[in-house]
Amino acid sequence: MNDASTPELQHRTDMSSPQNERLCKYSGTRCANVRSLKRNGELHNLCEFHRERANANQSRFDARQRQQRQLGLSSSEAADLPEPIPVSVNSPDPPLDEWEADLLLETMQDS
Question: If you ran DSSP here, which 8-state letter would residue 3 be given?
Fold first, then answer.
């Protein structure tokens, strides 16, 4: 019985339907989002959410590779290094209170 009513063939038929061809092809888990469009009108393989994540991951990887090249490290040496601690650029140290500034000045003048 080789018709589309068997479960295996039905599954294959469902996966190749035009509706499913428009769905994200993210390999980790099944994603129900629609694939995003390229500038030329063709479909990307991933939805916008997974494309942004993939681009961010690629950007971090590229930055790490550039840093390793600048330091002249081989990949095995770089693998032994710990991950850098992220620093927020938007949160500078809070300003000193007046008494803290006075104390700092006194300490500096005493030494």
Answer: S
